[in-house]
Design goal:
Blueprint: E1 3-7, E2 9-10, H1 16-24, E3 27-33, E4 39-44, H2 49-52, E5 59-63, E6 69-79, E7 86-93, E8 100-109, H3 113-116, E9 120-123, E10 127-132, E11 141-144, E12 153-155, E13 165-166, E14 173-178, H4 181-195
Parallel strand pairs: 1-5, 3-7, 8-11
Antiparallel strand pairs: 2-4, 3-4, 5-6, 6-7, 8-10, 9-14, 10-13, 12-14
């Protein structure tokens, strides 16, 4: 999985006054969990744009500039309800020998037979939760729709991998090819024509 480096600095004071001063200066207060103890730090708000405003999944290298750096994933983010300003971010530390669960996007590949026949592809699940060691985390889960006929569904069981586990029930539908209104109307008209009595010669 691709990684983004966030450069920040450790916070000495974590009180409300210090937090407010950070935000006024254009910085975001953050906390890194998962290690022996929580690490409080801050970074400029613009440093997070490639991490947050993207449909892609990333791991993060938190570089605190004092010889300390941590591998992590974004765990939670608080945003102001009106201004959309980032108020606070929680990260979770990664360890090479510990599995982690995170959401990654679904990437559709192939051309469905059902779509070629006039059906409409509907993506039911845009992201899937995967559990894996950090080195095995995928950038995306590939979903091949080539075999799907009109009316078929692609279940999560078809997307298994040796490198990660999908944390969803077996009956989870990733995508499906639905019959379009035009195709349905054509089928109805064909059925009517087949039932209609043939004229005498």
């Amino acid at each position: 999985m691709k990684s983004i480096t966030i450069k920040g600095s450790e916070r000495e004071s974590v009180g409300k006054v210090a937090t407010k001063a950070l935000r006024n200066a254009g910085a975001v207060p953050c906390v890194l969990y998962g290690g022996d103890q929580a690490v409080h730090f801050s970074a400029e708000e613009k440093a997070f744009k490639n991490l947050i405003y993207t449909p892609n999944a990333h791991t993060v290298v938190i570089d605190l500039g004092n010889g300390k750096s941590y591998n992590a994933i974004l765990q939670d983010i608080q945003v102001h309800p009106v201004s959309d300003k980032i108020l606070h971010i929680d990260f979770f530390q990664l360890f090479d020998n510990k599995e982690i669960t995170m959401e990654v996007p679904v990437k559709i590949v192939g051309t469905s037979k059902g779509v070629l026949a006039g059906g409409v592809l509907r993506l039911n699940t845009r992201k899937l939760k995967v559990k894996a060691l950090p080195s095995n985390l995928p950038d995306f889960v590939e979903a091949d729709i080539t075999p799907l006929e009109m009316g078929n569904k692609l279940y999560v069981t078809k997307l298994v991998s040796d490198k990660y586990k999908l944390m969803h029930p077996d009956n989870t539908v990733v995508c499906q090819v639905r019959i379009s209104r035009a195709a349905m109307k054509a089928a109805q008209e064909a059925a009517k024509a087949a039932k209609a009595p043939k004229g005498k010669k």
